[in-house]
Amino acid sequence: MSESVDTYHPGLEGVIAGETAICCVDQGRLLYRGYDIADLARHASFEECAFLLLHGELPTTEQLALFKQQIDGERELPGAVVDVLRAIPRQAPMMDVLRTGVSLCGNFSSAKSQGRSSLLTRAVRVLAAVPSLIAARLRVLDGKWPLEPKPGLSHAGQFIYMAFGREPTELEERVLNLTLVLYAEHEFNASTFAARVCTSTLSGLHSSVVAAIGTLKGPLHGGANEAALSLIEKFQSSAEARRWVEEALAHKQKIMGFGHRVYRNGDHRAFILEPYVDELARMRNEQWRAEVYHAIKETVWAKKQIHPNVDYPCGLVYHFLGFPSDIFTPLFVMARVAGWCAHIIEQHVNNRLIRPRSRYTGAPARAFVPLTER
Ligand code: SDX
Question: At the fourth CATH level, which superfamily is domain 19-217+328-349?
Fold first, then answer.
């Protein structure tokens, strides 16, 4: 066994912790299995992206139809799961409800082997369960019964139908699909790495996804889209926003939705999504809100030369689509579960237990002191 090299990288910054063929995150490009995110954002459905991430190739027409049929076939939740969604206290955050719901769904999933086809079966089950869990929870909170899935809708459209009891508008479906494509995968981000660590012990797919959900919830990671919107909602004017951000930065406060561990020249996904902020603001007649958005962004740049990440535009886009902010990060889960499952499957292929070392900074070795002498 190789001796551990005594180099310490806080937060594993810059450390190559494994190899992946799924995603390439660079300053100049973001690739899913070699395809540029700009092309996928322009041309692909989320279902095509999910298939690409899981199988390594874009689907043919027949493969896509079968994949969508498989997902549709798994959308209905077990009755006991719906009962729990009803029993969870109203004030529980949707991310916590989702963590519980996915874990509970795992108890109803018979497939247990770690073979590729069994993992793919469970991946489809979780892909289908996440939107159904979010939608069903929204319905029970509203005193309504969960809706049966409506055959033939897209993944994005099906969520809107099951959550809000109506067909999606073309705009809602197109924009939600875009955000799902942008959120689907991002190499060894914290939640994906958590899934791989859990998988490296040969634990099950549902356990790894639950570990990832818990990790994504944090405001330094996926929770930033909800936090970014609550920041924007603080202000009634750009001037007020500028003053607040300058004060916050002067006190070394982090502005949610800005910065990234890897990107230094900006987040490709934020550049792709940002035009929708202005388009939707115009449609909703909330241009002043977009002005606050830009004022915050300009002030952070002027003071710290830090770019927004994907969560900054996404929070406001979801607000303009009329989604409750409590589901913003769960929608991130709805997309990223595709990437997580692809990494879980990949981790199994050439697995080695992930177990880094630590540098000891505690008390030097010392003799035990009996209780009577302390
Ligand atoms: C996601 O990894 C992924 O790929 C994640 C993700 C994905 O798709 O999975 O892209 C999704 O999680 C995006 C990030 C969402 N989180 C936020 O928006 C929270 C706010 N951002 C920061 O907390 C921060 O930028 C991180 C956590 C994202 C990255 O932090 P790092 O790499 O540990 O950087 P750092 O905290 O060491 O900051 C370096 C410098 C510091 O300044 P100095 O002390 O050197 O003067 O940059 C400053 C920081 O103060 N800085 C910020 C800032 N982010 C960094 N200052 C103000 N506001 C910020 N948001």
Answer: Citrate Synthase, domain 1 (1.10.580.10)
Residue 261 CB–ligand 1 contact under 6 Å: yes
pLDDT band at 340 (very low <50, low <70, confident <90, very high): very high
220 CA to middle of ligand 1, Å?
Answer: 7
H or E segment and range at residue 280: helix 268-283
Indicate the residue type of 181.
V
The two tokens of residue 12 are 């594993």
Query: Per the CATH hierarchy, to which homologous superfamily does domain 224-320 belong?
Result: Cytochrome P450-Terp, domain 2 (1.10.230.10)
Q: What is the pLDDT of residues 234-292, one digit of tens each?
A: 999 999 999 999 999 999 999 999 999 999 999 999 999 999 999 999 999 999 999 99
Say what the pLDDT of residue 113 is: 82
- Lookup: tokens for 248: 């916050």
Q: Ligand 1, residue 186: give the atom nearest the CA.
A: 8
Q: Is 11 close to ligand 1, i.e. is its CB under 6 Å away?
A: yes
pLDDT of 41 > 90? The answer is yes
Mean pLDDT of 336-350: 97
Establish whether 260 is a catalytic residue.
yes
Residues of the chain above pLDDT 70, percent: 98
Total-model pTM: 0.97
The CA 346 to ligand 1 mean position distance, Å, reads 27
Domain ranges of the chain: 19-217+328-349, 224-320
Whether 126 contacts 209, CB under 8 Å: yes
Q: Report the candidate in 246, 238, 237, 196 with the shortest Cα–Cα distance to residue 354.
A: 196
